[in-house]
Amino acid sequence: MRARTLVDPFYAWQRIKHYGIERSIIHFLGKGILRRPVNGTIRLCKKVIWFPSYLRRIRTRNSIMINSAYHRFIDQKLGYRICSAGEIPGIEPVLSHCQDLLKEFRKREGDSPADGRSYSELLSPDPSNFGSGIAADLTKHPVLMKFAASRPIMEIAAGYLGELPIVGSIQLYLTHPNDSQVGFQNFHYDHTAPNDLKLFIAVNDIDEQTGPLTWFGADHSDQISEVIGTRIGRANDDDVYTAIGDGKAQRTIGPAGTCFFVDVARCLHYGSRGNTKMRAVVVFEFVSKFSYVESNLERGRILLDANDLKNPLDCLAFNQA
Ligand SMILES: O=C(O)CCC(=O)C(=O)O
Ligand SMILES: [Fe+2]
Questions:
Q1: Domain locations along the chain
Q2: Which of 89, 121, 122, 286 allows an S-S link to 172, with CB 3.0 to 4.6 Å?
Q3: Is residue 200 within 8 Å of 193, Cβ to Cβ?
Q4: Is residue 40 pLDDT above 90, yes or no?
Q5: Nearby residues of 154 by Cβ (< 8 Å), 6 or more positions away
Q6: 150-202: per-residue pLDDT in tens?
Q7: DSSP category for residue 249
């Protein structure tokens, strides 16, 4: 078996293809004390280089928030919010589109694919398609693009992030029955940006047997990090629970349509662990255009045209302005 280190050229190349050059450097620096200053400098440089665009995003954010009901929809201290099905306008078409995609998949492969993989991406922006699914062209899913750039969603994201964000990725992923505990099945932060806001929408009902996303609020995550450090890759359960004690973890359990906004850069989390049933979630990610790593959609270099983007907010959300 190949040694999985960055000095192995094959592994380094696979990793760069998967994460992009920026994220690979950040991952590498993530283990060192240079992480914070380097990240801060990259963000500052991006804001200087794209200063007019930065101003435009701040101005647009201010204008859509004037009469918005979503100013403090997500509490900065907690970094998450759970909403029942029906609380967020515009969920129904998203849900039925994803349920159709899920039905097609199940017809083809059933709940447990023959090759034994633990997850499948039905919609993935990953240009290298490192996982097992089909790299998807989002323009074939206008329902999802429209929802991501819609007013309530943009107001919630902009209200939390303080500037008009870009849609970093849209994913539909399934986790199959499994007993593994690797990668994102262990506690981690996504070190992609200071704030990485993901909206997880349950496409099928999620319960304890469906490998729910499990996380600590940002306040509790900070307490844990004070003990175990922030520069972790994947953290061990015992260390985490010793630092915080039992009972503070949140879980994405609820019927199809339940929405979970979670800042995965600030809330320590894992998911897809111990499913005995399949779980399907559609995930919309919102990040600053001036983050230190490119988002998956930026890395995909997807060029959209006027038919895909109906108004200025769509253009800003999909980073074409
Ligand atoms: O719920 C899961 O499968 C984990 C997902 C995760 O870590 C993420 O989306 O950042
Ligand atoms: Fe994650």
A1: 51-317
A2: 122
A3: no
A4: no
A5: 64, 164, 165, 313, 317
A6: 999 999 999 999 999 999 989 998 999 888 888 888 899 887 788 999 999 99
A7: -
d(CA 169, CA 126): 9
**In this predicted structure, what is the pLDDT of residue 134?**
41
214: Cβ below 6 Å to ligand 1?
no
CB within 8 Å of 267: residues ≥ 6 apart: 79, 80, 189, 215, 216, 217, 218, 221
Helices (H), 150-291: 151-161, 218-228, 237-244
Q: Which CATH architecture describes the domain 51-317? A: Sandwich (2.60)
Q: What is the pTM of this model?
A: 0.88
- Measured in angstroms, how far is the CA atom of residue 193 from the centroid of ligand 2? 12
Dig out the tokens for 157 from the structure.
């994201």
Tell me, what DSSP letter sits at residue 227? Answer: H
Measured from the CA of 285, which atom of ligand 1 is nearest? 9
Contacts of residue 71, Cβ cutoff 8 Å, sequence gap at least 6: 65, 159
Q: Which of 12-16, 134-138, 143-147 has the highest mean pLDDT?
A: 143-147
Q: Is the CB of 165 under 6 A from ligand 1?
A: no
Q: What single-letter DSSP state applies at residue 254?
A: B
Q: Which of 188, 192, 213, 252 gets mutated to test ligand 1 (max ligand atoms within 8 A of its CB)?
A: 213
